[in-house]
Each structure stands twice: as structure tokens, then as C-alpha cells.
Amino acid sequence: MTSRPAGRAAVDVVCLVGTLALVLTPLLEVYGGRTALPALAGGLLLGTTLAVVGSARRWSAITVVAAVVVAFVLAGGALAAPSTTVAGVVPTPSTVLDLARGAASTWKQVLTLQPPVGSDGTLLVAAYLLALVGSSLAVSVALRARTGAVAAAAAIVPVAVLVATIVLGTRRPIVAPLVTGVVLVVVLLPWAAWRAGLLRARRVVATGALVAVAVGAGIVGAPVVVGATDRLVVRDEMVPPFDPRDYPSPLSAFREFVKEDAPLFTVSGLPENARVRLATMDRYDGVVWNVAGDGSAQASGEFRRVGSEIDTTVRGDRARVEFTVDQLTGVWLPTVGQATAFDVADPDAASALRYNDATGGAVLTGGVHRGLEYGIDVVVPRVPAVTEVGTAPASDIAQPPLAGVPDAAVVTAADVARDAGSPVQISATLESWLAEEGYFSHGVQVSGTESLSGHGADRITSLLAGDLMVGDGEQYAAAMALMVREMGLPARVVLGFVPEPGAGDGPVEVTGKDVQAWVEVAFQGYGWVPFDPTPPPEQTPQEEDQEKPSEPNPQVVQPPPPPPGAVTPPDEDTEQPQTNDPDEAEDGSALFWRIARAAGIAAVPLLVLASPLLVVIALKALRRRRRRRSPDPVARVAGGWDEVLDTARDLRRPAGALATRNESARALAASFADVPGGALVATRVGALARSADHAVFSATEPSGAHATAYWADVEQTVDAMNRSVGWRRRVRARVSTASLKDHRNRRPKGTS
């Protein structure tokens, strides 16, 4: 290998390592602040040093690779796995083993954890490897290449590292993607031309013009092309292994908690007036409130692994809360406020922890058990008063559509809140009405009315439309959430525990008598605000519905009735036979029927001409009916997805042939990106595709209620797709035969 001038080598190192440092910078946000800075800086320094030394001493390629592996092990302990070293520097056999395992497994861990992922275990190995291997490979190719064209190929390495960083990155990186792209073009394109020997003095103007066009296209053209389309992030497409829909509704166990007298768990450090959250539910199917694991961003059922630190934008009082589980069972883990860090003593339980930052809820996929101890660093938001919220509008939050809502909830909500003005006044009015007009009972037979458990449509109807409104937190919270949602506000039901006030910072034993359900409504600028519609326990029918003894009114002499008024005799000729002409109404009726008959005859040719269009509409209606009423729930769900694809095809925005459901969803999102409401369509089709794949390929068959709820989502998605186009396109789509043709090749593949 011929030696390279020092000046040329310095330019190579500065251009390549500088661009590598730029594309790796977004990983700082993924790991949290400066956590990954030593691993990135150390990897770049080591890789560059080994490449320069290997080029100067004419090492063979195998020697350079061996040197990189040795450096990875010796320095990897201090830079990427300090917990396995002695004094944070000296590697041990455990360091070598963990680094070897981390090189293969860290990538998946970083993708499945919510940023910031922290530095636990070997999480930093991914960042360290990208910096070390990327810098050594890029600099080695540039300095050791025998020809300029091969040396210019080193520019591919920063681009490849950029792709890896995008895969591991977040939706909004700290360095704007536009800035990164422009810098890469401005730096790497001239450098590669120079190293390939294509940069001549007479070509400087042409190269400058080319760079200017590229930069202008990136700055001006990219936003126009991309528009409002969200940046694709792989971690958001990862389907978590825990599916809460496999478990019964937590709210259905309300009465079971009430019967439990033994301590369920002990909590220490609970802030004053803080509530313990067990589960948050935002989907109703006419039978139960449950969590929604449909893949949407704000879904209550999207639980993911978290790192040692959890980012939150919630403001409030910070506290450290410690839990010790006693008799509590199931997968739902008690939490408080919004968590910023979890500290689980049991390693197995720590690996099974999943968290939902949209609701503040957590689960253990293996289930909680007696003796489990864990601590949470939390932020407890302050609860604003109704007057403080004032006229703040409701937050724009997409929630799963309601299904099977009883008419009693719709009618009662409109009647009770008809005089309320702002969204918070509507919520407060419904809360006050339920708490003041209802009675509390956990199921005792009182006053001839039994307080049954459950919160299905029949139970809510009997609560709101019966002779006596009686129930407990399960029914009142479920009813208020339905009423608030019917008034157009985002609402969800929370099951948790509210210990008696005045417990202090000491350990508090939480039992079944502390169980409670409440409603949370979201307002802009204030987040989710809790409401308690349950009447106080002392407000029972036995004490409140007693008949009061009647007090006789004093007798008063009534005045005599007034004399009857004078009767006016009828006119003499009012009853005489009439000799006028027949009523003109009869002639008008005859004229109407003649016009109607003529119009009917004239409409026959029009009906004949329109019959093909009517046949198309009828065939589509029959196809939709057949899909929706299929006895097989799997076929019903798959048919719902086919209905979405057929709608897109009729709207001349097909998803393409031979595509999986997820690929079709991405294609639909792209085709609707340039129309009003396109972002909503993109969110919905993505969730529908994932839900359909889960129903088709899951080992368990979906329930009929799940298929019904899925079709409700399909209807809303189809409606959003139709509204996104003009009325002419909408009419043409109704009578289009595109979706009626044989399109078997566009069926989803066997894998998703």
C-alpha cells in the first residue's frame, strides 16, 4: 500500500469522523442526556486511532480487525458495561461474556425500551459498536485504498450508520433530519468527488451548482413532499409481546376487591391525597370497559419495556413511593402518578415489567406475587379546581370508538348537562348529578332494589332509567365515562385505591375497602383531571329514602264555583244544506295524482339507465353484509380489513398488490397523506392492520365482541377516507366497479 500525504489523511479523518459524530448524536436522546457520550466518543476515538495506526504501519486487514476486537473487549467494560468491571475500568471474565452477548442482543433491547433507555446492563454496547466499527471501517477504507474511487466509497459508511441511528432513534431527534441530510450532502459529496479525482477546477462551478440544487431540494422540497406525514420510527412499529386483551376487564373485579378484608399491599411514602392506580380503561363494547391494545399512540393497552429512566412532561410534586405486595394477584401493578423510574428488587420481575406512559399504568407479564417489593420515583400532578380549568377546551385525543352504548346514557347526559357551558362544566355537572341523585350500595337488597354488579349496557340502563339509582364505584364511574364521551369529551375509567386521608408518610395497608373507580377527562393545558361520581357510602337508600310522615293541611273553606257562562245560540243557517260548488281540494288532489303518475312514467327510462349503478350499489351492500355477519369471528375481522382496502380502491387510492396488511396500511397512509384528515386515516389503518394480523395469526380465536368492535373501527375509518375526498370523487366511488373485480392477487401475504 502506498503511503498517503499527511494533509490528505487529515482531511479524510476530519470529514468522515465529523459526519459520523453528527449522525450518531441522536443516540444521546435515546439513552438519556449524556449517558451514551463516553461510549460514542470513546468508540470514535478508538476506531479512528486503530485505523490511522494500521494504515501507517501497513497492518493487514485481518490485523486491523483483530485490533478492533481486542479494543472492543478491553475498553468496552469501561465505556459500555462498567457494572461488570473492577473499579469501573478493569474488565473481568463477566465483562467479556456480557459484551459478546450484548453485541447480539442489545439492538432488540434498545428497540423495545422506551427512551431514555438508560445504561443498565449492556444497553450501551449498541452505541459503542456503531461508533467503534463505523469509524475504523470508514477511515481504514479511505486511508488504505489503492485508488481514489475505492477511497471515495468510504462515504457510504456514515450513510449506513445514519440508517442504523434512524432505526434506533426517536420520532423527533435532537438534530433535525433536514440538518443532518444537508450536512452529509455538503461535506461527503465534494469529499467523495475530490477523493475520486473527479473534482477539477473547471468542474467547481458545476459541482457547486449540484450541491446547491441538492441543498435546496432538501430544504424546500423535502417538507413539500413529506408534508405532515409522521416520521417512521421502528420502535413505534414494534408490537409488544404483552396483550392486555387476553385478560378480563379489571373493572369487572371491583366487587371481588370489596370482599377482600386482608391487606392487598402496603405502600410507603404516598403523597397526601394521592391515588393508587391499578388499571386505566378507555374502550367500551357494551359489556365491559377495558384497556385498548389496538396499537394507537394513546392506547391504554400499549405496554412496553422501559429503561432505568422514564421521560415525562407532567408537572407536579416529586416523591419516592415504595410498595410491598401481599394478597394482590393478577398482572396489574399498582402505581402512583406518572413514573420517572422503577426500582424492582426481583430481577425476573424487572424483566417482566411493562409500562404505559400515556396512562401511568404498569403490568408484570408474569403476574404479581406475594412478597414482591419495588419502588417508583413519581411525579404527582396537582388536581386543578373546576374554576381554574374555566373555559379550557377538551384535549384532542384519539380514543377507541364506543360500542353498545345504552340509550339511557345518551338521553340522560343530554338532559343533565343541557345548561352546562364549558367542557369542565359539563363534566362537573354530570359528576354532581350522579353523586347527589344516586345511592350507594355494594349489592345489599334494599328498598326492593338490588345493586347488581357489572357495568354492561343493561346494568347502566337500570342504573340511569330505573326507579332507584343505586350502585357503587363500578357502575357510577362506568356510567359517567359513557355520558362524558357521548358529550364529545375524551374520558376514561380508572380502577385503583384511595386510602383514607391522614395516613401520613408511613406504611399504609391497602385493603378491599379502599378500592375505588373514578373518571378522568382531558383538558388542554391541564391534562387528565379526575372526577368522582360515586355517592358517599353513607348515602344509602335505607337512610335517604324513608317516607316522611305527612302533615295535614289546615281546612280552608273553599269558595263556591263560578256560575256557568252564557251560551250563545248558533246561527240559524249554520246547519243548512250548502249549494256551493265542490271543494277545490278535491281538484287539487286529482291534479297531484296526475302529476305523480306522469312523473312515475317519465322516471321509468331513468331507472332503466340507472339500473347498472343501482346493481353495483346493491352488490357492495350485500358484500359488506356478508363480511360483517360471517359466523366466523376471524373471517369477520379479515372481511373488515378487506372492506377498507375495497374502499381505498374505489377512491382510486389502492394499496397495491401482493402486500401484507402492514405494507398495505403504510401504502394507504402515504396515499392519503396529501388530503385533509390524512393523518387520522394513517393512524386508523395502521391500527386496523395490526389488529387484523393479530386476529388472523393468533393462536386464540377472537371473540364476537372483538369482531364487532373491530367493525366499528372499520366504519369510522371508511367514513374518514370518504370525507377526505371531494363529493364528486365520493359519488364516483359509490358506483365504481373497481372493488368488485377479481383481485385475488392483492390478498395479504401469509405473514404480516
Automatic annotation (TrEMBL):
It holds the Pfam family Transglut_core. Residues 557-567 have a biased composition (Pro residues). Residues 529-586 are annotated as: Disordered. Gene3D superfamilies: 3.10.620.30. The chain crosses the membrane at residues 9-28, 34-54, 61-81, 123-143, 150-168, 174-192, 204-226, 598-619. InterPro entries: Bact_TGase-like (IPR052901), Papain-like_cys_pep_sf (IPR038765), Transglutaminase-like (IPR002931). Signal peptide: none annotated. Residues 465-535 form the Transglutaminase-like domain. Residues 570-586 have a biased composition (Acidic residues). The keyword Membrane applies. Keywords: Membrane, Transmembrane, Transmembrane helix. This is Transglutaminase. It comes from Cellulomonas terrae.
